[in-house]
């Protein structure tokens, strides 16, 4: 990349950095609260609210990066038992189901977001508007939808190559080039 060009804006990376910042705030606030409680018997006001808010931000803002890196929890029980084409179809079905679930979450969050904005809901101890928290979650879900959609399109494009491949990705131990057992 030439120095004159601006780096492309990466919303996934920005959300991940915001999540990391929320984690740092949560850890530092908790450490200060514990120190103040032990040293002066004066805990900080609003610690529970701050931890709740930052914990939600950490989890949801990291979601798009998790999908982009394909690091969500998976059970690969059938990966070695099915053919390559079947495995590609199962992975595509998983991406489509994930996409549908994310869209459902994003759509159902719209009404609570509007209500929290309209009524001015805030956390009890800290003046953190609930609608800002829900807006961050909605943004993370929308970015996640685009990430998973891109992954699904990539799998659809790669699907014929997976089906046309003749080599078995998990060859049995008895197959070798000279016919001898390995």
From TrEMBL:
Spans traversing the lipid bilayer: 12-32, 44-67, 88-110, 130-149
Topology of the protein relative to the lipid bilayer: Multi-pass membrane protein
Keyword Transport: yes
This protein's UniProt keywords: Cell inner membrane, Cell membrane, Membrane, Transmembrane, Transmembrane helix, Transport
Cellular compartments annotated: Cell inner membrane
GO molecular function, one term: transmembrane transporter activity
GO cellular component: plasma membrane
Keyword Membrane appears in the UniProt entry: yes
The Tripartite ATP-independent periplasmic transporters DctQ component domain, residue ranges: 26-157
Family: Belongs to the TRAP transporter small permease family.
Subunit structure of this chain's protein: The complex comprises the extracytoplasmic solute receptor protein and the two transmembrane proteins.
Job of this protein: Part of the tripartite ATP-independent periplasmic (TRAP) transport system.
Name of the protein: TRAP transporter small permease protein
Species: Bosea lupini
Lineage, uppermost ranks: Bacteria, Pseudomonadati, Pseudomonadota, Alphaproteobacteria, Hyphomicrobiales
